[in-house]
Design a protein that fits this description.
Radius of gyration: 16 Å
Strand content: 5-15%
Number of domains: 1
Number of strands: 3
Helix content: 55-70%
Protein name: DNA-binding protein
Organism: Limosilactobacillus reuteri (Lactobacillus reuteri)
Shape: elongated
Structural class: mainly alpha
Number of helices: 3
Order of helices and strands: EHHEEH
Strand order of the largest sheet: 1-3-2
Largest sheet: 3 strands, antiparallel
């Protein structure tokens, strides 16, 4: 199946392209829907129908930065705790 010209992809395309299992796909969609990039997921039913890939990629970059910041904060707390 080809990607739609507008950058939208089906669930199956995203799973294949990103190497996601069903569980990982579901986890990422739930995270995305709770993020500032929730409009990357287009749904006409209770299932995830379409993903707007350019927006989804922005979500992934946002998620990556968020994880990096959380790790940095935890690391800083641990470091300060060791020196106190």
């Amino acid at each position: 199946m080809k990607m739609m010209a507008n950058g939208w992809k089906s669930r199956e395309q995203i799973m294949k392209d990103y190497g996601y299992s069903e569980g990982t796909f579901g986890d990422r969609m739930r995270e995305c829907l709770e993020s500032p990039y929730s409009n990357a997921v287009v749904s006409d039913t209770s299932k995830y129908a379409i993903v707007i890939e350019p927006l989804y990629q922005k979500f992934l970059m946002w998620r990556s930065e968020k994880i990096r910041n959380e790790k940095s904060e935890r690391s800083g707390r641990l470091t300060r705790g060791k020196h106190d």
